[in-house]
Amino acid sequence: MVTISNRRLFFAIILDILLAGLGHMFMHYIKRGIIILLSAIAIGIVVSLLLPSNFSLLVALFFWLWEIYDLIQLSQKERLSLTKPESHKLTDKVQNHQNHCVRCGNNNPAGSSFCNMCGFALR
Ligand SMILES: [Zn+2]
Q1: How far is the CA of 54 from the centre of ligand 1 (A)?
Q2: First to last CA, the chain
């Protein structure tokens, strides 16, 4: 089953692998993404100065795995907050006219797949 949030997560994982923290920023975890990017740079400098290159590859691999794990955790939390019964009622009620964003409360034009304010997936 491929839903929009699964595709978003997959894309975020790719971005995080390309540049540490980028996927987190894409998922709107801006602060977390910046912290991850800065710590990746710091770890990268320390590791490349102190350890042989084989080790820095290993550290990078562990960092990637942690980032992916963190993204999956975050998106599962997002999905859980979406499946709460009260938010379901709320979206069902307004779905005919507007797409009410569960995350920021913005009313988006009918037919929008993503929130205009925060980019949150509406369907
Ligand atoms: Zn929103």
Answers
A1: 44
A2: 14
One digit per residue, pLDDT tens: the chain, 123 residues?
Answer: 456 678 889 999 999 989 999 999 999 999 999 999 999 999 888 888 888 777 778 888 888 899 999 999 998 888 887 766 655 555 555 444 568 888 898 888 888 888 989 999 887
- Which residues line ion ligand 1, judged by CB < 5 Å? 101, 103-104, 106, 115, 117-118, 120
3-state class (DSSP) for residue 116: coil
- pTM reported for the whole predicted model: 0.57
Q: How far is the CA of 28 from the centre of ligand 1 (A)?
A: 11
3-state SS assignment for residue 28: coil
Instruction: Find the 63 Cα to ligand 1 centroid distance in Å.
Output: 30
Q: Which of 103, 101, 73 is nearest to 12 (CA)?
A: 73
CB 40 within 8 A of CB 22: no
Residues 6+ apart with CB under 8 A from 86: none
